[in-house]
Amino acid sequence: MEPQVPLSSITASRRVVVALTASALAVGLTACGSDSSAATPAGGTPQPGGTLRYGLSQAPTCADPAQAGTNQTIYVARQIVDSLTDQNPDTGEIVPWLAESWDANADATQFTFRLRDGVTFSDGTPFTASSVKNNFDAIVHSIGGVKAPSAVGYLAGYTGTTVVDDHTAQVNFSAPNAPFLQATATLQLGLLSDKDAAKSAEERCAGDLSATGPFVLEDYQQDKSVTLVKRAGYSWGSDAFAHDGEAYLDRIEFSIVPESGVRTGSLASGQLDAISDALPQDAPQIEGAGGGILTTSNPGIPFGFQPNVTRGVLTDPAVRAALVPAINRQELVDTVLGPDFKPATSTLASATPGYAALDDVTYDPENAQRILDEAGWVPGAEGIRVKDGQQLSFPVLFSPVFAGNQAILELIQQQFRAVGVDLQLDLQSMPEQTARQNSGEYESSYYNSTRADGDILRTAFGLDGRNINRRGPIPQLDEVLTAQLTTTDPAARAELIRQAQQLVLDDGLWIPTVELSQAIGVGPNVQDLAFEASARLQFFDTWLSE
């Protein structure tokens, strides 16, 4: 990615505070995975004005930033909601946004943020330290972990926010929360107006929200379209943005176009300016019309199976262990996804700070069969293994939130069958998948999760996280996940995150497949469309050429 972050606007003293805090509380943030193709080439001097028409592959699930989970939802919500901090996508440095500076105590139980002056919500009310308190209190005490699992996970141990004065907020925790500073750069901890923070989870989802962002929500029609308009007078952008002042675009019109071929055709014909989930087979048509495909790798947890260890054949650790070498990940990339995607090599994606490749995430079907043989699963009718009269068969719950999911799982279905495992595909909508994950009505669930910090392992696999595995205590893993949360030394925390990756795999809690990359098709008139550190789109610097 072209450098986006002129830091000359940060004062010398603020640079020191930012650099010290970021180095103390983040791990390995120099590798956040921004690819050189992640921003459009320079097309001249940016020109303000115009409407960008964007085709989403799926409808946003909820307008509320705290409850946002899918990329398509975040693409919309990120434009209207600012966060306390931002994360430089090139360096991983935590930089100012709504907070001008910050510091933390030695054990990371208390974070003090000094807020920008003159910031207002789009309803005209001021942004103050009380706004920070009201938002974080609502996430923990009102919205809750079922509706906002990521946001609540980021606030682990939250005891409240002290309003020191209008421009100073002190966020307090009952135990160390070393990853919290990076979490303040995420959309899920973005800030809504005091009035909107007080709304119920359902009211917040409906779309009538006021925030401080560079765009304002003009129209929100669930499953149909979303329209954003430029916020006049916006002057408090992130230090990771490439310019100061207002956004260049006057409007962004999001439409929902689930069919990949229709999205591509609409882009090639000039009916849309940019589209989500451009697949490899779409590239010739897009490039033939003078456009291109922008890509970047997502940090976080790669796509994979999360077994419910309390149901069906996946209660057997040997079955879970055998599934890992049964998957030919390179074939998945080569057959379904193309060269802009990577095979998963760990329980973290390679763009994640603290990532470590795991030798066991290797295609070895002979080893998969050996594990099953030794566990007593013997070949049965039509090649499917059996044990004690039970077939080695299980369903996987998934949604079409990523366009390649079904094709990937259909190929894995063939790979599993080659070692005697019968995989059944259970396609559901994203809301239905989430509901069943929350209720436990599944044997395995297929998805990915994005965050530019290794603490995502705790929120996904910890007993106090979502625990979609439905597991009980695993002392060694539980100790490591807790320790990385409370460790402020970067090298020590990196080692704990490395251990956690291996333990998640060893305990059969995740069967990794492929890493997610964002692949965005753009027309020839779209300039400087960029990805932020979590591989989601940032339209603030985007402009349209003639």
Task: Please describe what this structure looks like.
The protein has 546 residues and is of the alpha+beta class. Helix content is 29%, strand content 21%. It has a 7-stranded mixed β-sheet with strand order 8-9-10-1-11-23-12. Helix 10 packs antiparallel against helix 12. The radius of gyration is 23 Å and the shape is globular.
Write the layout of secondary structure elements.
Elements: H1 12-25, E1 51-56, H2 71-77, E2 85-87, E3 94-96, E4 99-104, E5 110-115, H3 129-147, H4 149-154, E6 158-165, E7 168-173, H5 180-183, H6 194-197, H7 201-205, E8 215-221, E9 225-230, E10 251-256, H8 260-268, E11 274-275, H9 283-288, E12 292-297, E13 301-307, H10 317-326, H11 329-337, E14 342-343, H12 365-374, E15 378-379, E16 385-387, E17 390-391, E18 393-398, H13 405-417, E19 422-427, H14 430-439, E20 444-449, H15 456-461, H16 475-486, H17 490-506, E21 511-512, E22 514-515, E23 517-522, E24 526-527, E25 530-531, E26 537-538, E27 543-544
Parallel strand pairs: 1-10, 1-11, 18-19
Antiparallel strand pairs: 2-3, 4-5, 5-7, 6-7, 8-9, 9-10, 11-23, 12-23, 13-20, 13-21, 14-22, 15-16, 16-17, 24-27, 25-26
